[in-house]
Design a protein that fits this description.
Chain lengths: 49, 80, 722
């Protein structure tokens, strides 16, 4: 595996892990119900919380 | 108007009745009043679900589905 | 209770309230230009939503509150509405005005809510919506006379056609400027006495001072959240004070729990006198005629089952050609990109097998999602969903599931998250918790790709398209069938919930508007694609790395040294297979596989199942990646279905036999049907209850899924020829 490949593949993996960690963090965070999963059009942060 | 008193759940499909004052102990009591099922309202049983429960009733142009157990708490005068 | 409007801020706050099924959400979308989920089904709007409205030169923040028949704050969503209107939500002052949307055909019942808002002293505008439908039925409302009687502007609107919007703008401005409040009920003197008695008693205990309107709610409502919100000092039980104030009413010959409704309706009767003209002879409406068939004891059920079957059969068959096109497109992208990366084989594998293969495998199922949402929107918008609930209630009601559980559970067929949020319409906290705990068992649209892959690869080739459609139908039924006994057990042994009243309005049938249906299909498609492009891509990259590494040269050398016969291509394939078999993922998978061996899963399926806990679609990407690396990149790779069908066990007692057969495919589907593999849902469940319950749901569903898969496989291998 060439040096370029090593860097590219490592960067992709690090980015993927970082992205997922951020997702999890947001999920556990205060604004979790708001568009967290990107799947449901209805979910918004609960009013008054 | 002055037919025999019975519960709403005893009415058959197509039969009408006039609501009598109900018991405030029933959990649906306030809900039914809020949507206008007041004493004196004329109510008709429109349909009964395939397994005999719930029933669909019509009053004041509103169609409502409710379980027999809840309908049993509504006393009516059967209309002829 | 209304505070004077803050003149300093230029943005007005206007709340939109109304009974369910009055076209409130349609009006909201008309006014704000925002698209929202529109459904002809009671309780679709589960929470507060806001948008900006340019209202006759003024900027208005329009807030759409959940549909409600009454302000009696007994369920969480009603509480939100009441708190919002009284200005008790943190950081949200009371609105400057309220638009109450009423159904012109059901004016009296709709004005009940308006009259309750009048009690709070808020400026009010009545939007006489769906006037066209009312007029068609021969019901005429004299808006001007009604406006004079009520003391607030009454505007004739048809939200679906945008009629009356200009007049509504003028009316809102007028109501704000003149602080036009609706005529209040002339409460009997005893009500005043009961309220003062309660106020004095609460004051003595140091409860925050409450307005008369709020105190009346406390006296009238069997269970009011008002006191709770006002803050009850510790050690103070308000019950004796409350019953003493109700005794004042009883002594005056007024039944406290029915007083509000009787007095209000009497007052509304006076206010509307002479304003409504009913047709001389009531015509049999379309709704009545259709319902005579669709809710019929025999025909209704037959049509319901037939309709559900057609829905799933069409999802299965219509999608076929579209799937083929997407598969071809994915393959051509792969063959287009692959040559560009020829110098970097590792990177090539990451992009082709990992990202494109994994995500492409998921995107292939877009047509099914679109077709499913076409039907869901159609059934919701026409008003049929309520009929479905009516027909099915007895079957699912015996377990103590609230009648109101239907809306959340039906929503969960699309996605459990809005379903869990929709439980806020349920008053009883224990009934609500039960519904939250079983909602994720409903087969959400993210499970669809798993079913379609397995059915397409293993059920259809053996049993034909008819059985394939039926299997899809059955898989959507499994979760529901399990939810009923689970709910029963939860209610009986854990929560002790008593049966709740089931009142569901059967809305009039309405012709669906295809623009709205197309919009919802597009919204869902976008979400599905966004998810495939973000979470699934990230998961795929990680899984690719775990399948690709480590790559010690010794593995290749050993195979090449022992290669006695066979073409170089065959040797390459054996090398690839050997690499996968010793990858990190395979090692981890083999470690856990014994756990899933009774369900017939090999290490690849096991790994797919485990990787899918954050999001269930990942299994497809995982299998796509594993089998993608296993196949030669330059070779015209067959679709995932054929690849799965040709995979064989390399070791163990079943060596040489196919990894996948009908019982295994069924076991996988049952596992996915019952398992809570969605991080976002778990988080939302924790928010709506607490982490304890969310983890409980996760645990019980995982156990159920495992047991269900094992049972399916064990029974399946005995009774089905594989």
């Amino acid at each position: 595996m060439s040096g370029f490949e090593l860097i590219a593949v490592a960067a992709a993996i690090v980015a993927a892990v970082a992205y997922l960690l951020r997702r999890v963090h947001r999920l556990l965070g205060k604004n979790a119900a708001g568009g967290c999963c990107g799947r449901c059009p209805v979910a918004r942060p609960p009013a008054g919380r | 108007m002055n037919g025999a008193a019975c519960s709403l759940s005893a009415l058959r499909i197509g039969e009408r009745g006039r609501v009598r004052p109900g018991s405030p102990d029933h959990p649906a009591f306030q809900r039914l009043l809020a949507i206008g099922l007041l004493p004196g309202t004329s109510v008709q049983v429109v349909q009964v679900a395939p397994l005999g429960d719930p029933v669909e009733i019509e009053f004041n142009g509103m169609r409502l589905s409710l379980r027999k157990a809840d309908a049993a708490a509504v006393e009516v005068d059967r209309a002829d | 209770m209304a505070k004077t409007p803050t003149l300093s801020s230029s943005v007005l706050r206007v709340a939109l309230v109304g009974n369910p099924n009055t076209g409130k959400t349609t009006l909201f979308n008309r006014l704000t230009g925002a698209r929202q989920k529109i459904g002809n089904y009671p309780g679709v709007t589960v929470e507060k939503k806001s948008g900006t409205w340019e209202c006759g030169g003024r900027r208005v923040e329009l807030v759409d509150l959940p549909g409600a028949y009454s302000l009696a704050a007994s369920s969480p969503d009603e509480r939100v509405s009441f708190d919002f209107l009284t200005g008790h939500l943190a950081g949200e002052p009371a609105p400057d005005a309220v638009i109450c949307v009423v159904d012109a055909s059901n004016l009296v019942r709709n004005l009940f809510l308006a009259s309750q808002i009048a009690d709070l002293g808020l400026p009010l505008v009545i939007a006489l919506n769906m006037s066209d439908a009312a007029e068609k039925a021969g019901i005429r409302v004299d808006a001007q006379l009604l406006s004079r009687h009520l003391g607030v502007p009454v505007v004739r609107t048809v939200a679906t056609k945008g009629e009356g919007i200009d007049a509504l703008e003028k009316a809102v401005n007028r109501a704000v400027d003149e602080r036009a409040c609706m005529a209040q009920v002339p409460w009997p003197e005893a009500v005043g006495r009961a309220v003062s008695y309660l106020r004095d008693g609460l004051e003595k205990e140091g409860v925050r001072p409450l307005a008369d309107g709020e105190l009346r709610r406390v006296v009238f409502d069997r269970q009011s959240a008002v006191l709770e919100r006002a803050g009850i000092p510790p050690g103070f039980d308000p019950a004796p004070l409350l019953s003493a104030s109700r005794d004042i009413l009883t002594a005056a010959g007024i039944q406290p729990l029915s007083a509000e409704a009787l007095l209000r309706y009497e007052h509304i009767g006076h206010l509307t006198a002479g304003t409504i003209e009913f047709p001389e002879k009531r015509k049999r409406s379309w709704t009545e005629r259709i319902d005579a068939v669709l809710t019929h004891r025999v025909w209704g059920l037959v049509i319901f089952v037939a309709m559900m079957f057609v829905v799933f059969q069409s999802i299965y068959t219509w999608a076929g050609p579209f799937m083929g096109w997407i598969e071809e497109a994915v393959a051509s992208v792969q063959s287009l990109v692959a040559p560009l990366l020829d110098n970097w084989p590792v990177l090539q594998s990451l992009v082709i097998d990992g990202v494109i293969g994994g995500v492409g495998g998921v995107v292939v199922f877009l047509p099914q999602i679109l077709i499913l949402f076409f039907f869901v929107s159609l059934l919701e918008d026409t008003g049929y969903m309520a009929r479905g609930a009516f027909l099915m209630d007895k079957m699912f009601g015996w377990c103590g599931l609230n009648g109101k559980s239907f809306v959340p559970m039906l929503s969960s067929y699309a996605c459990a998250i809005p379903g869990v949020l929709a439980t806020r319409t349920i008053e009883d906290p224990r009934a609500r918790l039960t519904t939250i705990l079983v909602s994720p068992l409903m087969s959400c649209s993210a499970r669809l790709p798993v079913y379609v892959l397995m059915i397409g690869a293993f059920i259809e080739p053996s049993y034909g398209a008819g059985v394939a459609g039926f299997t899809l139908f059955a898989m959507h039924f499994v979760g529901l069938a399990v939810a009923v006994p689970v709910a029963w057990a939860l209610n009986k042994f854990v929560l002790g919930t008593r049966p709740q009243p089931f009142l569901l309005e059967m809305p009039p049938y309405r012709a669906p508007r295809f623009r709205d249906i197309l919009w919802r299909m597009w919204e869902r498609a976008r979400e599905f694609l966004v998810r495939a492009g973000t979470v699934i891509v990230a998961m795929t990259i990680i899984i690719w790395a775990l399948v690709y590494f480590p790559r010690p040269e010794s593995v290749r050398e050993k195979i090449e040294a022992s290669a006695v016969a066979g073409s170089p291509a065959q040797t390459d394939r054996r090398v690839d297979a050997a690499y996968i078999e010793q990858s990190y993922l395979a090692r981890a998978g083999r470690l856990v596989q014994p756990l899933f061996a009774p369900a017939g899963f090999d290490w690849k399926i096991t790994v797919g199942v485990l990787a899918s806990f954050p999001a269930r679609e990942v299994i497809i990407a995982t299998l796509g990646t594993i089998y993608g690396i296993g196949s030669d990149v330059d070779e015209e790779s067959g679709d995932l279905r054929t690849t799965l069908a040709s995979d064989r066990w390399t070791e163990g007692p079943r060596a040489g036999q196919p990894v996948f057969n009908v019982p295994v495919a069924l076991a996988i589907m049952v596992f996915f049907a019952l398992c809570l593999q969605c991080g976002a849902t778990v988080a939302v469940m924790a928010k709506e209850s607490n982490w304890g319950w969310a983890l409980f749901a996760f645990a019980y569903m995982t156990l159920l899924a495992w047991a269900g898969a094992v049972l399916t496989y064990q029974v399946g291998t005995r009774f089905l020829a594989s």
